[in-house]
Design a protein that fits this description.
Elements lengths: L10 H7 L1 H14 L8 H12 L6 H15 L13 H15 L5 H16 L10 H5 L5 H12 L1 H9 L9 H19 L8 H20 L4 H4 L9 H7 L5 H7 L2 H17 L20 H6 L8 H10 L4
Helix pairs in contact: 1-2, 2-5, 2-17, 3-4, 3-6, 4-6, 5-8, 8-10, 8-11, 10-11
């Protein structure tokens, strides 16, 4: 069941609280926007036409994906926001790619060829290439979850500021955002690192990255006594997580169980469909039934859009009225 609680909060307060997530969302929208009016489209077409020429009836759709990817990589957009991306933009781009690839029959070949072209072009540029699809797709297990943790990790300072300030204690609070990221961390850790620490390959790279994230989390978020009592540690057992995360959301669960809320939620779903295709989000980000820390409360209050991660669904809800 998809639950939307648009009527439950003040959208302006949400945008203030999640200002750092708005930046993530807005970047994602940049990657997803159409090519209409793009003066560099002829350059993208020059790269993509040889790739898609033998795709038959699938050519037009796959070509559009290809041209968007070439644009997003930025090597032909020297004076735009796409050129010379920083680490954060690369991670958001990976999320966009993971979401889009399942929509196209030839996406793997397109992605490979586009990145080859990007790396070749940037090899002659002093800036060199910054994004590498292989760096996540072939290095980490559950790469899209890892990019979400990277976004969380890279915004740690902003998260601390939000947690230390005043905020509404609802499902869109910075507290619940931390809880969701802890859930993702635990899901990956329990799957790949808990029983036996890998010595090589994707498993080792994944567990090494989780170790780094834990060091930063413990050093920044848990070093403050006040925050330590609010948020769960990454080593939290089910009881600690329940006390600090799940119990905070019970009020929301009881409200969404009422007929009036369900009616409003249904209306919100209709509004959602009219405003934007829910397929915008990845369909296989998080298995809500694995990794521990799960209950009907978490599933309900952290809800999903078409199977998307709650993090990306949250970005969607927060920004929906401003698109």
């Amino acid at each position: 069941m998809f639950v939307y609680l648009f009527h439950f909060f003040n959208i302006f307060n949400i945008l203030f609280i999640y200002s750092f997530l708005s930046k993530v969302w807005n970047t994602y929208i940049e990657f997803d926007k159409t090519l209409v009016g793009d003066t560099n489209s002829h350059s993208y077409e020059g790269v993509c036409e040889p790739i898609v020429r033998n795709y038959g009836e699938e050519k037009a759709r796959n070509k559009d994906f290809c041209m968007k990817l070439v644009r997003n990589l930025g090597c032909y957009n020297l004076k735009t926001e796409y050129h010379n991306p920083n680490n954060d933009r690369c991670h958001i781009l990976y999320n966009w790619i993971y979401n889009e690839k399942n929509k196209y029959k030839h996406s793997d070949e397109i992605i490979t060829e586009c990145f080859k072209d990007y790396i070749d072009v940037m090899s002659h540029n002093p800036d060199k290439h910054k994004c590498s699809y292989d760096s996540y797709n072939n290095v980490y297990e559950d790469p899209i979850k890892m990019t979400i943790l990277d976004i969380f990790n890279n915004n740690m300072h902003d998260i601390i500021n939000k947690l230390m300030g005043e905020y509404e204690k609802d499902e869109f609070s910075p507290h619940n955002f931390v809880c969701e990221c802890v859930k993702i961390y635990r899901n990956i850790y329990n799957t790949y690192c808990a029983i036996r620490y890998p010595r090589e390959g994707k498993g080792k790279s994944t567990c090494d990255m989780l170790k780094t994230i834990k060091i930063i989390y413990d050093s920044y978020l848990l070093r403050d006594a006040a925050l330590k009592h609010k948020i769960p540690s990454l080593d939290a057992d089910d009881n600690e997580y329940s006390n600090k995360c799940i119990s905070k959301a019970k009020g929301l669960e009881s409200v969404t169980a009422s007929g009036k809320s369900e009616e409003t939620s249904s209306q919100s779903r209709e509004d959602l469909g009219r405003n934007r295709d829910s397929s915008l989000f990845p369909r296989d980000v998080i298995d809500e039934n694995t990794g521990g820390f799960m209950s009907p409360t978490v599933s309900t209050t952290l809800g999903t859009v078409a199977g998307a991660s709650s993090v990306l669904a949250l970005l969607y809800k927060v920004n929906m009225n401003f698109i």
